[in-house]
Fold:
Amino acid sequence: MSLDVSRALKNPGQIFPFESSIELEEMEVLSDPVHFVDIAVQGEYLCTGENRISLKAEVQATADTRCSRCLEPVSIPVKAEMDVVFDRQPDPEDPDLYSFEASTLELTDAVRDALLLELPMRILCAEDCKGLCPVCGINLNKGTCTCQEGAEVLNPFSALKNIVLNDEEV
Ligand SMILES: [Zn+2]
Ligand SMILES: [Zn+2]
Structure:
């Protein structure tokens, strides 16, 4: 998405509001596919120097991805605050500056960076998602299997759990 900032460059210090929608390609985040859709950007910008534009905006989007445990599709809302500086001659030592040419800002990179920062590391379809059976791969939210039955009996903690539960009932 391009933003024409020629008026701001002619009027340093004056604040210009803007709002826009934007589209991002599907990407991979920690080997999970993530597609941000319905991206809305609303904010303001001003010229703070001959070659410099400061921009603040609120970004709202939906992230289409998959559950980290059961791998089923999940959509979650993501909200991000953008507070960035665009410079025509960015200092290569400063990674926080985005470059721009003439009087047009390309917001795509900055919006993607802001959304990725707010994306949770671990996305679940539900807090109590049971995930996939490590043996047969069945989705345990949808069905059951007998792979783990033997393991349950041998686990000393499950036996302990039963004792505690019995005590509570008394
Ligand atoms: Zn899940
Ligand atoms: Zn199984």
